[in-house]
Amino acid sequence: MNYIAIAFGAVLGAFLRHTAFNLIKVESFPYHTLAVNIIGCFFIGIFAEYCIIKGNVPLSVRLFFITGFLGSFTTFSSFALDTGFLTDKGEFLKAFVYISSSVFLGLASYFAAIYFMRSLIR
After folding, report:
1. Segments forming the whole domain that contains residue 79
2. What is the distance between the alpha carbons of residues 60 and 8, in angstroms, rounded to a whole number?
3. Distance (Å, rounded) from C-alpha 93 to C-alpha 54?
4. From CA 99, how far away is CA 113, in angstroms rounded?
5. pLDDT tens for residues 30-60?
């Protein structure tokens, strides 16, 4: 049952990731990867904090959402690939902005989600 939950989550996450890539097409900067990774960081913060606070979320639900859905929706390998493309083109400033904004905004959205959930539930 757990493998099925992961598989269904992965299909949904990959579909939404592909949709986001088609909606956010900018050749000069990987906004699509940045957007899905920041959104993914926010939702993993929401869900993880919910699981911690409630404590009774079934394993299959956690595997569906975290491992399956968010695992296929976000990706570090695309981040690395996009950074490589920028540096190969000699766009080092864009690569630096991309790396910095990915790390900073990803962590900021994760912590914002935790703060949001704590203030909402507690």
Report:
1. 2-121
2. 11
3. 43
4. 21
5. 999 999 999 999 999 999 999 988 889 999 9
Q: Which amino acid makes up residue 30?
A: P
Instruction: Report the half-sphere exposure of 51 (CA within 13 A, side-chain side).
Output: 15
d(CA 51, CA 48): 5
For residue 118, give both structure tokens: 């704590």
Q: DSSP string spanning 46-64?
A: HHHHHHHHH----HHHHII
- For the chain, list the strands marked E by DSSP: none
Greatest C-alpha distance within the chain: 50
Give this prediction's pTM.
0.88
Total domain count, the chain = 1
Could you report the per-residue pLDDT of 49-93, keeping only the tens digit for each? 999 888 899 999 999 999 999 999 998 988 999 999 999 999 999
At 29, phi and psi to the nearest 5? -155, 140
Which residues fall within 8 angstroms of residue 87, CB to CB, at 6 or more apart? 95
Q: How far apart are CA 109 and CA 70, in angstroms?
A: 14
